[in-house]
Amino acid sequence: MSMLKAILPSLAFLRSRWLGCPLALMLTSTWALAQDKRWGPGEAASDYGYRFHDLFWLITILVSVAFALVVLLLAIPVLRDRERPGHRASFDHGKSLHDKRLTAVISIVTFIILDAWVLVIAMQDLREAYWAIPDAEDPQTYRVEVLAQQWAWNFRAPGVDGEFGTADDIITINELVVPKDRPVSFNMTSKDVIHALFLPEMRMKRDVNPGSINKTWFRPITAGDFTILCAELCGFAHYQMSGKLRVLEQGLFNEWEAEASKLASTAFDADDTEAQWAWDWEE
Amino acid sequence: MRGISWQGLAVSLGALGLLTSLQTSDDENPHARAPRGVSLVVTAGSWLRAPSADWFAKQAKSEPSRFTHDATAAGGVGGWVDSRGEYSLSEVEGEWAYWQWVSPERLTAGRRDFVQFCSSCHGLDGDGYGRSAQHLRPTPRSFQQNKFKFTKVIADLPSDEALMTLIKRGLAGTPMLPWDLSDVQLLDIIQYIKSLSPEESGWRDVYSQVGDPVEVGEDPWADIKERAIARGREVYHGAASCHLCHPGYVTNEQLRVLRKDPEGTVYREDLTYPALKDSEYEVLGRATKVMPPDFTWHQLRAGITTADLFQTIASGIKGTAMPQWKGAIPDEDLWALAHYVEDLIVSYKDQPAVRGAFMKGLRASGDN
Amino acid sequence: MRTPSLAQTLILSSLVLTACGGGGESSAPPPGGGPGAGPGGPSTEAPANGGSGASSPAAGPKAWSDSAGTATLSGSASLAGDVPAPIQVAMDSDPKCVEMNSGGATDGSVLVDASGGLQNVFVYVSKGTDAWTFTVPEEPVILDQTGCNYTPRVVGMMTGQALRVQNSDPTVHNVHTYPKKNRASNVSQPAGSKPLEIEMKRSEVLVAVKCDMHSWMQARVGIVDNPFFAVTAADGSFTLPKLAAGEYTVSAVHEVFGKASKQTITIGDGEAQSISFEFSK
Amino acid sequence: MTSDHIHPEPTTFLKKHVFSVDHKVIAKQFLWFGLVWLGIGGIMAMMLRWQLANPGVPVPLFGKLLFPRTSGVIDPASYNTLFTMHGTIMIFLGLTPAMIGALGNWSIPLMIGARDMIFPTLNMLSFWTMVMGGAVGFYSLFVPLGATEAGWTGYPTLSTTVGAVGQGETLWAIAVFLIGASSIMGGINYITTVIRLRCPGMHWMRLPLTVWGLFLTSILNVLFIPVIGSAMIILVLDRVFGTTFYVPASIMSGGTGGDPILYQHLFWIFGHPEVYILILPAWGVVCDLLSFFARKPAFGYRASVGAMVAVTVLSAVVYGHHMFTTGLSAMLGESFMLLTMIISVPAEVLFFNWLHTLWKGNLRLTTPMLFAMSVIFVFGLGGLTGIYLATIGTDIFLHDTYFVVGHFHLTMAASALFGTFAAVYFWFPKMFGRMMSERLGKLHFWLSFVPLVIVFCIMFISGYAGMPRRYYDHTSTEYLRPLQHLNVATSVAAFLLGAAQLIFVYNFIKSRWWGEPAPQNPWEVGTLDWTTETPVPHYNFKTIPVVQCGPHEFSNPVLGPDTDWIYQTEKLPG
């Protein structure tokens, strides 16, 4: 009886608004929310971002051709070789040497065109860009420590003195400011669960694991405000773990850094050791 | 062969039962937590034991001041003091103290949601030092301290509605997100949080008062924003002397004029920077310090509309150096301050170039 | 500004619909709807008195009358060791304060005279007054802010007595109390404001009062359940007049050096005794 | 082992229909079990799509019943639970029993000419262990402090007490363990049965490819399920007994700690073969059905078998591509990239053989044939998009976005599901003695196939546009808000897809009891399962058959013009 009572309101919903309501809701509400629709990831703002674009579209072309071939080879028999009176399939086990050779050749050629080509480019990309983490000793490199937590990004930059663990370290939450045209190098770890630092406009993503330090980098080439997202399920507020990445022109950045450092040292409480979490940068 | 298989089945069922029973034992206090530094071994067990209504019933007997026992109520056991409850009970020293009966089911539900959603920062026992709270400044609220910064009430404690509003809006620039939870869930969590007050403090203190958020009322400067900003600037650097803690957004010269100080008066060094202040908020027993925000730089936590700012300034920020201003200066000056601060935020925050030029202008002028 | 599309109108209406459908979230009234707390609930308890033990003996306390107080306890507090050099306080954040302390200002937390007498020690009877109930004086205790300092720096008052904080300075202060057992408050007091009345409902010895705007400004308030308390003078001396005959525990607390060891005395009618407290760094 | 010792047919209801040791009954049990769970998992998917299209809007019809505390709105925790359980249910409780449990139990003994599985009791135990796993998994939804919400991958430390304090996660791990145990029991049974119980003349190269697929799947099951089993046991130890295998020292205030990455390795050593565990039987079915309905021998039988064996072997060494962003060393990353690419070679061989089988055939476009051909389409789409993810350069951006969701749904979910549908439509007449409605079947096919392709193709666009997966509400982030229209479109297509399954349910139930009685061999196919009567008698074959030819002797000229097929028990003329 109580079960029935619990169900009844749902049924009332059914009676009063019938199917039209949920459907109308679904079709309209969120179309309107998305005022400016987007179909791609937008312009890349990092120097290696173009590599994703190039490789992606290269693969897309290759894959499209391959898939078109599959569909074609699927469609022709369907249209041509349908069962009809008097029609009989050709008998072919594909056992002949010719067939075996054909199989081998086609597979290997497909592999070379589809995979090996992409593979070579990808390895090149990795070595030249994604995994070419800049030297932390280089003064050009802007270093950032990331301490992820449920559900926020803690960033720490060394400030004007260029050293971590000092009073002028710039600590920000969910907001990162970096200089344009300088490599930004990350050392990342987490307080609790695995997160992933995802900068979509920079085409950068790397997991942030508790218990070990992960490294990654990018070099912004466009000034402006960008997005920081979390790309590894980190609990139920995962979707809210976003932040803002601000890329400033070099001159403006230096000013910003000086000011941020000064404010940081004003806010620094040397006795509050619990608040200090910088670590050594090891190569 | 068949016999052995049945035995295997029985054994696996038994093992399963054992595992589940290990987890569902309610005998121990789920708040019990090993001292910090002891490995997870000890803590894991207690983490997993979820309290049931029975648990609360037991607690009510052992801790009568936390949970009242009411034989007339259907559930037998219920809630604790909430001075805003509709069901008044006793009169203490001329003030009405109210009690609200909260069912153990709601407490249980509240605790579950608290553990699931809040405990990673606020700690399992609400001490404000969960795993994700390490190194975090400002610190998450400890519900054993019962001080709340941004509830915008003048009284000691916020009402349920005020807390709910805060949780729903979140605190900008902190891991306190705007939580997508339903009102029912939030109210249950809030009831549970109240029960975390230590004896004679917070919601378990008969002298505590619960207030509504500062009433916004009408903005006296609604149509004359420019004048409001000018007046706000005067109050900020004059009667209210906000620049003692927050940055002054004027040159020394201008400050002398605003404060009608004689020529040659010297103000604090770093006038254009905020000054670090003590707070009452503790981590591991040690009070932390809090930086008054530079409105052109830092993110404000509790909203940047004029009304939000008015409420925050009027009520002050509990536990920090920011005092209650309501009553200390006239409301229209509070509104003027709100307008001025809002103007600072709109004009300079998130615009590094503009802000840089503005601050440089202040600092470069003459005798700063 | 675009005109709202049909879609947006639909959302709005659907939101309203869902909002209407989503009611029923308010908490249910307690069964019976009546008062919820029964015997054993904290509501029926008298407000607890913290600290110095005011619990009543079975016989029940009787009202205190001044005629019973014939004994006098006097004494002194001293600091062992060297006299610490006064610490200069920089008041440059507020030129008004600098102006009022043109001779320079020193930190007033430790004031020791040449013979070692320690000023601003709060001395009170912490035990032995259970036999009486005391009426709380109606006149408030005054804590003035003058010259960017609290005057007096240490005050004592009875539980429930009002603390009136007034601002005689031409500048703004905020009165921030840091109690552990009482309600904390932090209210600003611009120049010319009317005095603030702060209530402390539980006894608590040495509640800090600070002004966050002028970080050097500090005061201490001792709140006790009986009228037997005193603050040591510049030479470290104090007097507790009008004690009744009996056995008492007397405690002394200093804001920097903390508690001195308690002393138990037995005093007879009309007697005068003297005790001394020694603090160390 | 092909002894003629036959137990009498059980007579009690319990022995006959519940605790039966007959492989046919167990196959039906697995089928019903799997279909019910596919339904539950599907409804969960519908709820997920509802939330994504209408963030924060109450679920219509049954929302208030399921989420009373939020008056019908899926809250973020429930959302996480839903997608975790959707994944777990679909893989472990839906496809595994329906594909491997039901299909394997049904077709292996029948197709190899055996009277039952070699270990009938183990077979029954396998089913009931899975039921127990399902029950524990289902119960985990209702325990205090919340159901599991760490994703079907259950990465620590989110799945340890650090991230999930509730018992749901523990029960989830136990459920996965139990289901794994069931799969191992099944796997051992299948392997031994195929090795030992093949009837005379059924040598390895005469096995139907379905059996090959199931055989290789079973090998993977037996090899790799123990790995996830151990991972789950360790997880339970960490959760319940306070060990720290997966919890690093840095987050537990001292002591010695473990490493959460250990779990990822363990999980994916199993997890990647799991993809092939689900897809290999589907491949086998597709190989066979294409040949059956194109009335043409399976092109390159040996090459197909070789390709499937190669995939089986390689599947164990490519798992690292799931962890490209985890922080693998550059050397490992590149090696895994290369290996992953190499696994596409056998897949290409299979595609080539499938397409060649169809070429110049005599196509009967029945429902099972349509589903089998659609596997080529969806697996082609899914497999080819795998290249983006195998390539680290593109994976860095696409990892953990909807691109991945689209990819793996097409490869392992849609392909395996359509393979299952093909198998169900194909064997239904033999199983239940009645024909399924072809008209409804084709309707079901088109209404499933088109929306399914739309759903997952839109996901490719969303993923390319940078939409991360496992987000409760994409409109809460400015960057993702302009992608909401994609979510809405996906959801609309997904609801159509979901609704189309009602046709299947109707068709299945109606045909099961009220369908047209099936002839002995409606599809005119020569494998051994079609040589027995319909319904299949107790112990399948009165006498153990003797195989004379391969399974795909279609349109063999020696058969003469009147017929284009021959039973495997018959000798080819001439």
CATH class of the largest domain in chain B: Mainly Alpha
Class of secondary structure makeup of chain B: mainly alpha
Low-confidence stretches of chain B: 1-5, 20-52, 64-99
Averaged pLDDT of chain D: 91
Query: Low-confidence parts of chain D, pLDDT < 50 over ≥5 residues?
Result: none
Largest sheet of chain D, in brief, is: none
**Which architecture of the largest domain in chain B would the CATH scheme give at its second level?**
Orthogonal Bundle
Mean of residue pLDDT of chain B? 74
CATH architecture classification of chain D: Up-down Bundle
Gyration radius of chain B, to the nearest Å? 26 Å
- The portion of residues assigned to helices of chain B is 25-40%
State the separation between the terminal residues of chain B, measured CA to CA: 94 Å
CATH class of chain D: Mainly Alpha
Ends apart, CA distance between termini of chain D: 32 Å
**CATH fold-level assignment of the largest domain in chain B:** Cytochrome Bc1 Complex, Chain D, domain 2
Give the percentage of residues in beta strands of chain B.
5-15%
Order of helices and strands of chain D: HHHHHHHHHHHHHHHH
Question: How do the SSEs of chain B run, as a string of H and E?
Answer: HHHEEEHEHHEHHEEHHH
What descriptive keywords fit this protein?
heterotetramer; A: 283 residues; alpha+beta; Immunoglobulin-like; 2 domains; five-stranded mixed β-sheet; 5 helices; 20% strand; B: 368 residues; mainly alpha; Cytochrome Bc1 Complex, Chain D, domain 2; two-stranded parallel sheet; 11 helices; 7 strands; 8% strand; disordered N terminus
